[in-house]
Write a structure and sequence with these properties.
Layout: H1 14-30, E1 45-50, H2 56-67, E2 71-76, H3 88-97, E3 102-107, H4 112-118, E4 125-131, H5 137-150, E5 162-166, H6 173-184, E6 188-192, E7 208-210, H7 213-216, E8 222-225, H8 241-248, H9 253-257, E9 263-265, H10 278-281, H11 288-307
Parallel strand pairs: 1-2, 1-3, 3-4, 5-6, 5-8, 6-7, 8-9
Helix pairs in contact: 1-5, 1-11, 2-11, 5-6, 5-11
């Protein structure tokens, strides 16, 4: 992958995406044993630069870096000099001066990762771990990896797969990244949501739009329920949580309407009982915990490809 940064799924070519997914699979095979650590990034330093709260993404990147034997510097805006007014530029330059070579940034402002990458402030590689309501490219990549693992006949081309993304599209960077990446790989993507939870300009996205989950669900090979992001909502986007769950919740008869081989996905964290029931989250068709595990592999692949690590051993080694 001949690029210095990973900022958006829109910048990826089909070849780039497949290279990341193939590398993640190679890393999976290399670490599929008692010894799960590789020496490929030994002596290199990765920085987790998080200006927003995160559990899954931050820990996933940390685990990925450590499995490649990199050193990790974890930064959290809470309790840091950011609270004293320190700028993104000064924070990034300080962490680079401490040895950071690749920075994974999550920020509430859309475009923050791109600004850091294109500003010339630092020489480090930049990975976007979520910027505002814009993009979350590694989440889309891990979702594609998960889908591919359950539909091996679509290994190189998702043409023929129909994937539904349901719920709060308006506030979801995951939806934006997935819509772009999955269609790039050939999938037929349908966004299913009330009109109030669709962004302006969604009609220009390479997807189908539907307001009726029940009319779509039996045709889907994979369904992704999105978290209702109440913290980003200043107005009433739907009458009530009960009404939302009734119209768009993945529960009850909708679970029974799914294809037998369809998979249930969720980027987490989940609001059980709202966008997905406990029955759906814990069902045999749920791959939600697989998504978490696959996230480490995909992020290992991204770090490895951007930093130009040593060749991947054929199996894990003690380091």
């Amino acid at each position: 992958m001949k690029r210095a940064h990973l900022l958006s799924t829109q910048e990826l070519t089909r070849a780039d995406a497949l290279e990341i997914l193939d590398t993640a699979r190679q890393l999976s095979r290399a670490t599929d044993g008692a010894i799960r650590k590789l020496p490929t990034l030994r002596g290199r330093t990765v920085v987790n630069l998080f200006f927003e709260d995160s559990t899954r993404t931050r820990l996933s990147f940390e685990a990925a870096a450590k499995r490649l034997s990199a050193d990790v510097i974890n930064f959290s805006a809470k309790g840091s000099s950011v609270s004293k007014g320190e700028s993104l530029k000064d924070t990034a330059q300080t962490l680079e001066a401490m040895g950071g070579e690749l920075m994974i940034i999550r920020h509430s402002a859309s475009g923050a990762a791109q600004r850091l990458a294109e500003s010339g402030w630092v020489k480090s590689h930049i990975v976007n771990a979520g910027d505002g309501m814009h993009e979350h490219p590694t989440q889309a990549l891990l979702d594609a990896f998960t889908i591919r693992s359950h539909f091996p006949e679509f290994d190189r081309d998702f043409t023929g797969l129909r994937i539904g993304i349901v719920g709060d599209i308006l506030h979801s960077r995951v939806a934006r990244s997935n819509a772009q990446l999955l269609t790039l790989l050939g999938a037929d993507v349908v966004l299913i949501a009330p009109p109030t939870l669709l962004p302006i300009g969604v009609d220009t996205w390479p997807v189908k739009i539907s307001y009726d989950l029940d009319s779509e669900i039996s045709s889907l090979d994979a369904i992704m329920a999105l978290r209702v992001q109440s913290e980003r909502m200043n107005d009433a986007f739907f009458p009530s949580e009960r009404e939302y769950a009734r119209e768009y919740g993945l529960a009850g008869s909708r679970l029974r309407a799914l294809k037998k081989n369809a998979i249930i996905m969720h980027p987490g964290p989940m609001n059980r009982g709202l966008e997905i029931s406990a029955e759906g989250a814990d069902s045999k068709q749920s791959v939600i915990l697989e998504q978490v595990a696959n996230g480490v592999l995909v992020r290992m692949a991204v770090l490895y490809l951007l930093m130009g690590g040593a060749p991947i051993p054929t199996e894990g080694v003690l380091v």
